[in-house]
Design a protein that fits this description.
The chain has 127 residues and is an alpha+beta fold. It has one domain: Trna Endonuclease, Chain: A, domain 1. The chain has 4 helices and 9 strands. Strands 1-2-5-6-9 form a 5-stranded mixed β-sheet. It has a 4-stranded antiparallel β-sheet with strand order 3-4-8-7. A hairpin with a 2-residue loop joins strand 1 and strand 2.
Length: 127
């Protein structure tokens, strides 16, 4: 989705404004990924996700029947259910959409390799 469309969607209440960043497939498995750059506090050791995004993503997961993960800078993963269930509402912030944020302890996240596995090196062929 191009930046002009993203900018226009920010002015709406449409769930489309929370469209995930990527769709990935591996071995016939499809997942939706929403990248969360600079959304982890080193001081409090909590990931941050806007509550409105989590609500929209729960609806998207129900509609598409596909898993969705938030991917943070350190490759930690959270799904919307975990973010909603384990997150605590953070202080109001003028950043982003102005909606409340959920703060989720880093300890509640999954490792990237835990969910997606470790890539296997191609076997060397004997010459």
């Amino acid at each position: 989705m191009g930046e002009p469309i993203r900018r226009a969607l920010r002015a709406t209440n449409s769930s489309l404004r929370w469209t995930p960043d990527l769709i990935a497939a591996r071995d016939g498995r499809i997942v939706l990924l929403d990248c969360k750059g600079s959304m982890t506090s080193a001081a409090s050791r909590r990931h941050v996700v806007e509550r409105a995004a989590v609500v929209a993503h729960l609806q998207l997961v129900a509609w598409t029947q596909l898993p969705l993960y938030y991917v943070f800078d350190n490759l930690d993963l959270l799904d919307p259910h975990e973010a909603l269930g384990r997150g605590r509402v953070g202080p109001a912030s003028p950043a982003g959409s102005g909606t409340p944020y959920l703060l989720v302890p880093v300890a509640r996240s999954l490792g990237f390799d835990e969910v997606f596995g470790i890539p296997q090196e191609p076997a060397a062929s004997a010459a």
